Amino acid sequence: MQKIQTFAVQKTTGWEVRLNKKNMAFQMTKQTLVYFTVLLTAITVSNCKNKATENQSKSSGDAAVMLPEKTDSLMGFEGCSRAGFKMLSPQVHEFKYQDYTFRITNKEDGAESIEAVLDSTGRRFKVPDVEPTYFRGAARGHFFVDVGTAPDVREMIVYSLTRESLSQVYRTQYLLEEPPFVAESGSLWFYVPVPESEVAKEINCPDKADWLKKDLKVGYGQRYLYNMVNRGLTRKSEFICAPLQ
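^ thats the sequence. predicted structure below, dont judge the formating
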């Protein structure tokens, strides 16, 4: 820059002025390139640090949700068989029963992907999951899948699992107000929603007025029993009322 300033006070020819301008432009361009190179390097380093921090945070989060392995875990409806529990990753866990293992994968929409594995042969059966599905335990060679996301009335599928096949043996709606349970006799007990006209006798529904004030509807359910031994279905003269949205 001193050399350029000297030329500025001396008598110069047109050629010298043009030369000085070119030198100044070259120096400014060179400084600009250096500046942007340093800036680009700083941004790249910052991005790498941020990415590493994100990965580290994700790893820490994954580790935080890993649950300990259990050898005797109760999963699903009341009365279901106990199973061993093991987490393979934050998204995948297994329930191990006497003859088979269920591998459950958490999906992005919150539902579950369910796969049954026969321990003796390693044969795998994929449970259809076109609709949102959730594993709800196993008992007596059967297992139960909850279907849908409704807040008060859901669907339930009963599957039979053998060495050769996986088959759907029963499907029904049920009320969440009184969750299903498996009795010692081998029957699955639950309440099926029915219209008020089918309620055979007057039932005690003390909260009905409060539900109506909250703009809720009043639903009714009848007790059903599904026998997993002979696959028989029984309707009992037992009724309940439940709030519905």
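Residues 153 and 202 are 22 Å apart (CA to CA).
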